[in-house]
Structures are given as structure tokens and as C-alpha cells.
Amino acid sequence: MAKIVCFGELLLRLTAPGRELLLQNGQLDVHVGGAEANVAVGLASLGHETAMVSCVPGNALGEAAVGYLRRYGVATNNVTRGNGRMGLYFQSEGAGLRPSSIIYDRDGTSFALADKGDFDWDSALEGADLLHLSGITAALGERAAEAALSAAQAARSLGVKVSFDGNYRAQLWQRRVSNPKAILCELVGRADILFGNHRDISLLLGLEFLGDGEARRREAAEAALNAFPDLQLIASTARHVENADHHHIAARIDTRGDGFQTDEVAVAGIVDRIGSGDAFAAGVIHALLSGKNHEQAARDGLALACLKHSLPGDASLFGQADIDAFLAGERDVRR
Question: N or C: which end of the chain has fewer CB within 10 A?
């Protein structure tokens, strides 16, 4: 199987239990997360060799996050310890017509304070097939943005492919004075694979894509592929939300030659939607690095994203057998 290296901040998610409002009863459930770490865990669960590059505080919180990654088979040799604190985010899970809400607490973290020179990319990327990054890192501050750009540049110089998930987080970018468009375009310009939909591409290019459905997504993908010569593939999802418990999701992959979009899948009885986009990314990367075609990659990504909605926590823990069962329509008890 392939070796994938993921670079980003490890986080703790503190969620009000039982769909309560935050601190309604003074209790919080804790999960380890972070977009890139979720992809690493998801790919490790699918049998790939994965490694995380990050920086955490040298205290019990940082060690717990690192231990979580190790538990699921992610290599942590290149997770350094630094000054600062652990990144946190707080979630009140939605119910019915009330959507979920998130509060970030990520200023002054060890990862945000780390310098680009703190990461040894020659060592971290040795034997790697792919480096996975996301736009969340760039939103954390100037140092983190420079570190992400340094990582992407190192990967390209070493012949390692780069996948980039836009993961635009308005709350994080609003705390910065920098121009997100300029920084994100630099990162996408170094990527081979982009995870992002027409809204992400609109932000990058300053263009408005009219119409609806598949035609608009294809138009946006063609614009991005033309704007970024090194970009080879764009993977995205389309989500229609009826309420917090019932969504409809389709997946799409576009290349310069063509595009493919799956049928929409109804996802009901949602347990936890956090990390479903990271599960989609893991499923697509898994399929592509396993030699599957683009249609299969879109279906595998969608299957993993849908399955993630059934699982508490931030990361997908499903294997290929689970993807196959989902795609085969198996919904009853597997005995």
C-alpha cells in the first residue's frame, strides 16, 4: 500500500453531550481531531502507511493526541514538541432544525507558533507517495502558512505528489489580516489534487459560476484546472441539508478530460458529521493510490463520507470491506 504524509494541527474537540448546548450541564465529551490527522487515521484504517507531521505541547494533552494517532497506526516520529498550548474547538451538536455550531480556540498553539524550519521534510517525506495539506493550516497565522508552503515546495522538489483540501473556515480567516485568496492560490498552485467545490474555486479565482448542479460544478472545475497548470484532479461533494439528521450527498471528480458525478445518497439518522469531508478525502486518495479509476474513486470517497456520519469522533475508522458492503447496498446486520 502507499505511504501518505499529512501535515497540520492536532486538536481536541470538546462537544456538549446528548446534543445539549455548550455547558448546558457543565459536561463536555473529548475527541482528538484535526482535518489532516483525520485523513491520516482514515487512510491507516484502509491499510496504508501514514505519518503525521505536526507540533504539540509537551504536556499530557499533547501526548494524548499523539497516543491517539499511534493507536490507529499513524507514525508520529515527526510530531515535535514546542512552546504554546493545545489547539481546541468546542461544538454544540445540532438537532432537528437547529444546526451545529463551533467555537475555535486556536490562538497561541504550539503548531501555530512553530517555524517552518522546525520540520525536517527530507526525513518526513522519505519514501512518501503523497503529502496531504489543507487550507486550515494557512488560516492559523503567518508562520503556519509559511510552513505549509514550505512543505508543498519540498514535496514537489522531491517528486512527491501533493493533495490539498481547501477547508475554508471563515471564523479562522476573519482573525487574520492576510489575504486568504493569495495564500490559498499559492498552495493550490503546488498541488496535484484539489478537494474543493465551486464555492472554494470561486474564492480562489474571484469568479462567479452561474447555473446549478453538475454544469456549474464542471464549469468551476474547468476554470481551476486552467488556472493551475500542475493541478490534475479535483474531487468534491455536493450536500443538501434537510435538517441536522438528514442530508443528501453526491460526490464528483473532474479532470481535464472529463468529469463524473455519483447519484445522490440520502444519509439519515446522523450520529456525527464532523470529519465527513476528511473521510471523503481519505476514500478518494485510497482509491487513486490503489489504481482505481475516477468513477471508483468518487464512489469510494462518497461511501466513506456517508459511513463517517454513523460514527462518533472526528476520523473514519472503516476498512475496504465496509466500503464494499456500503456500495453493495448492505444495510442489514452483517452476521
Answer: C
